[in-house]
Design a protein that fits this description.
Elements: H1 17-24, H2 30-33, E1 37-41, H3 45-57, E2 60-64, E3 82-83, H4 95-105, H5 112-132, E4 157-158, H6 164-182, E5 185-188, E6 191-199, E7 202-210, E8 216-220, E9 223-226, H7 247-254, E10 259-260, E11 265-271, E12 294-298, E13 315-316, H8 318-322, H9 332-344, E14 356-359, H10 361-367, H11 369-387, E15 396-405, E16 408-409, E17 422-424, H12 442-463, H13 475-494, H14 500-515, H15 521-541, H16 553-577, H17 601-604, E18 606-611, E19 620-625
Parallel strand pairs: 1-2, 1-9, 2-5, 9-17
Antiparallel strand pairs: 3-4, 6-7, 7-8, 10-16, 10-18, 11-15, 12-13, 12-14, 14-15, 18-19
The structure holds flavin-adenine dinucleotide.
């Protein structure tokens, strides 16, 4: 049976929807809040902010993360900045412009109401973070400084050098720690959620594994929030931290939460190129570098001269040439494809030929080295440490890499999934970025969800419920615990010949080759043949050493890779069914004469929400039509 997808979009004018909705939502009396327990899985910006804020409101919160401290959530890696429509620069920005840029940047595949709310709340985020003491960069006069990110012609990105995520997370972490000490939040570090418990159609708890002792535990709740980040590591090589995984959302999918637009994956144009077969991680060079760096390749294929010896006339600043209006700040999907194109023409640089230059020589000449150092010093240092090249003297070499997943669990306007009581925030949901996320908008979304949206909408859910008392002796908990234990034992019992990593690497290559920067029908069909075979081999031949009653990272990885092996198939099914190109989903069969993504609005203006139908049965496609009442759908142009 298919699902009814009700986005529960408030009626009325765009700019009044959120206000009106907040007024219309039910409230939980302050004295009653402590009677409700909310489980928050994830302590990154989305989860940490949500847990701290809900506890501050009075709810009892249990917060989980697999790292040894909430402070190490992957959000800490974010470099470049966070968007907000403050218009401090007086350069024409507004809430409406941020809304419009985001809708257009996502190639018209996101909900107007959600995106407008995001733009509206963005201004509060900056105030909140400043109040927490987040050390945003400032202008000489004291006002917060801004820089530009891709897909925008205004400067609206707030930043703290190249460590914005770290500073924002320290803010959220302090708020969380305060609540931990005050007793409102119980924190469970080094604990992995391995299943969702659904009772009478409602999310009522989770099953976890203590990663140090191996103990399997049940945690009941009145509502569950998943803030578990993105699933880019399905590609093995990505800019994500090694531990990032899809397990929480994938297991929730198998318990009834629809998975929306799984194939929408962002490939970031500015990463340090892959250097060899044994690499297990890719490093991002923040998009902020494109404020001052110029992207180019030699004009002629096979030009192997030192870049400093290549004169202006022999260079092709291909982004400036192709997209004069946005130049080096063309959005990520477009800049990535343009880099791939010049490399496919044989004009790529570096040993592998899969690289383009990001050159700061002009900026250093114009602004002086100290200014560049001040803006990007830590990024330059990181680049030099990894490549042994000094980017103040030689242009950086960059190439696109998997970075972010726009897809995720489907949520309505209240951030609730198709399982009642299961809410999903941050990168783990699909909500705001359509088919392509603009730079500096993920931090904005994670914090909007965590500080401002979920603390309101969770109350509306809880106030409207008459929840029966449950505890871990309930059959649903027992069944979920048994399933987790059985799976763990099964992984350990295989005792095969291949490492988990070798399977993961092979899966990643299939995904990169056939479901990466560009996709076509024939390739996706090949992937759909290869993935089930690889999955079968995994369950036949994987080798997981050690036991389940101790710290066992091979076991942790095995469980996550097993989930990636299933999710990858859904991603390819989704990519195959969407025969249009949109944003980062580039179907080679659907392009304009000049090679840009060609949407098919008549047939694909919808969110594809896939529903689990059981082991070895095809997932069911549910469609949420996207309604555009304020913006006119147009061919995206950055020229
Ligand atoms: C290198 C890099 C740089 C970036 N720079 C920027 C930037 O400048 N601006 C921007 O806007 N965005 C940036 N992004 C994107 C942005 O950082 C992320 O999208 C965002 O931080 C995700 O936050 P989150 O809270 O949703 O998830 P995360 O920060 O990934 O947190 C996930 C949390 O869930 C927990 N978790 C996951 N699964 C489980 C489980 N099964 N059980 C228990 N706990 C679990 C983890 O322990 C963690 O606490 C960048 C991304 C990368 C990779």
């Amino acid at each position: 049976m298919s699902l009814t997808l009700d986005p529960r979009m408030p009626s009325g004018p765009l700019a009044q929807k959120w206000d009106k909705h907040r007024f219309e939502m039910k409230l939980v009396n302050p004295a009653n809040k402590r009677k409700f327990t909310v489980v928050v899985v994830g302590s990154g910006l989305a989860g940490g902010a949500a847990a701290a804020t809900m506890s501050e409101l009075g709810y009892k919160v249990k917060c989980f993360c697999f790292q040894d401290s909430p402070r190490r959530a992957h959000s800490i890696a974010a470099q470049g900045g966070i968007n907000a429509a403050k218009n401090y620069r007086n350069d024409g920005d507004s809430i409406y412009r941020l809304f419009y840029d985001t809708i257009k940047g996502g190639d018209f595949r996101s909900r107007e109401g959600n995106v407008y709310r995001l733009a509206e709340v963005s201004v509060n985020i900056i105030d909140q973070c400043v109040a927490q003491g987040v050390p945003f960069a400032r202008e000489y006069g004291g006002l917060l400084a801004n820089r530009s990110f891709g897909g925008a012609q205004v400067s609206r990105t707030f930043y703290a050098r190249g460590q914005t995520g770290q500073q924002l997370l320290l803010g959220a972490y302090q708020a969380l720690e305060r609540q931990i000490v005050a007793g409102g939040v119980k924190m469970y570090p080094r604990t992995e959620m391995l299943d969702l418990v659904v009772i009478d159609g409602k999310a009522r708890g989770i099953i976890t594994r203590d990663l140090v002792t191996g103990a399997i535990e049940s945690h009941y709740a009145d509502a569950v929030v998943l803030a578990t980040g993105g699933y880019g590591n399905v590609f093995f090589l990505s800019t994500n931290a090694q531990g990032c995984n899809a397990t929480a959302i994938w297991r929730a999918y198998k318990r009834g939460a629809a998975f929306a637009n799984p194939c929408f994956t962002q490939i970031h144009p500015t990463c340090i190129p892959v250097s060899g077969e044994h690499q297990s991680k890719l490093t991002l060079m923040s998009e902020s570098l494109r404020n001052d760096g110029r992207v180019w390749v030699p004009l002629k294929a096979g030009d192997k001269r030192d870049p400093r010896q290549i004169p202006e006339n022999d260079r092709d600043y291909f982004l400036e040439r192709k997209y004069p209006a946005f130049g080096n700040l063309a959005p990520r999907d477009i800049a990535s494809r343009a880099a791939k194109e010049v490399c496919d023409e044989g004009r790529g640089v570096g040993e592998t030929g899969f690289g383009v230059y990001l050159d700061f020589a002009d900026a250093i000449k114009r602004l002086g080295k100290p200014v560049i150092e001040d803006r990007y010093g830590n990024l330059f240092e990181m680049y030099e440490r990894i490549t042994n090249e000094n980017p103040y003297e030689v242009p950086m070499r960059i190439y696109p890499a998997v970075h972010y997943t726009m897809g995720g669990l489907w949520v309505d306007y209240n951030l609730m999934s198709t399982v009642e009581g299961l809410h999903v925030t941050g990168e783990a949901n699909f909500s705001d970025h359509g088919a392509n996320r603009l730079g500096a908008s993920a931090l904005m979304q994670g914090l909007a969800d965590g500080y401002f949206i979920i603390p309101n909408t969770i109350g509306d859910y809880l106030a409207g419920q008459k929840l029966a008392k449950v505890d871990p002796t309930h059959d649903a908990f027992k069944e979920a615990v048994a399933a987790v234990e059985e799976r763990t034992k099964k992984l350990l019992a295989i005792d095969g010949t291949r490492t988990v990593t070798s399977f993961h690497r092979e899966l990643g290559k299939i995904m990169w080759d056939y479901c990466g920067m560009s996709r076509n029908e024939a390739g996706l069909k090949v992937a759909l043949e290869k993935i089930p075979k690889l999955r079968a081999e995994f369950w036949r031949d994987v080798n997981v050493p050690g036991s389940d009653v101790e710290l066992n990272q091979a076991l942790e990885r095995a469980g996550r890779v097993a989930d990636f092996l299933e999710l990858a198939e859904l991603m390819c099914i989704d990519a195959l069914h969407r025969t249009e190109s949109c944003g980062a989903h580039f179907r080679e069969e659907s392009q304009t004469p000049d090679g840009e993504a060609l949407r098919d609005d008549a047939n694909f203006t919808y969110v594809a929400a896939w529903q689990y139908a059981g082991e070895s049965r095809s997932p069911i496609l549910n469609k949420e039509p996207l309604v555009f009442e304020n913006v006119k759908l147009s061919q995206r142009s950055y020229k």
